[in-house]
Amino acid sequence: MLAPAVCRLAGRATGYLLAAVVGVTAVYFAAQVPVIAQGQTLRQAIAWVPELGVSLSFSLDGLSLLFALLVTGVGLFIVLYASSYLQDDALLGRFYAYLMGFMASMLGLVLADNILTLFIFWELTSVTSYLLIGFDHKDAKARKAALQALVVTGSGGLALLAGLVLLQLASGTGELSSMLASGFTASGSELYTPIVVLVLIGAFTKSAQIPFHFWLPGAMTAPSPVSAYLHSSTMVKAGVYLLARLTPILGGGSGGPQGWTITLSVVGGLTMLWGAFVASRQTHFKRVLAYSTVSSLGMMVMLIGAVSAAPVAGAAAATAAGLATYILAHACFKGALFMVAGAVDHAVHLKDVEQVGGLGRVMPFTAAAAVTATISMMGVPPLLGFAAKEQVLVTMLAGGPGSMLGAVLVVAAAVASVLTVLLALLVGLKPFIGPLMSTSEPPHEGPVRLWLGPVALGVAGLVAGIAPWLFAEPIVRAAAAAVAGVPRGELAAMPVDLSLGHLLHLGPALYISLGAIAAGVGLFVLRARWRAITAPLDKLDWLTAERAYEAIFHGGVLGLASLSTRIFQNGSLRVYIRIVMLAVLASAGLALAGSGGAFLGRDLLGDVKADTTMIEGVLVSLIIAGAVAATLVGSRLAAIVAVGLVGYCIALLFVVFGAPDVAMTQFAVETLSVIILLLVVFRLPRFNGKSSRPARIFDAGIAIGVGVLMTGLVLAAQSNLAAQPISHFFAERSLTEGYGRNVVNVILVDFRALDTMGEITVLGIAAVGIWTLLRIRPTRSGEISATARRAGTGPGAGHDSGTAAAEDGKDGVPS
Amino acid sequence: MLLAITVGVLFTAAVYLLLRRSLLKLVLGLVLIGHAANLLIFSSVGVRRGRPPLIDEGQTALAAPYTDPLPPALILTAIVIGFAVTAFAIVLLRRAYQEIGSDDLDDMRATEQ
Question: Which residue on chain B is closest to A770 by alpha carbon?
Answer without folding.
Answer: B88
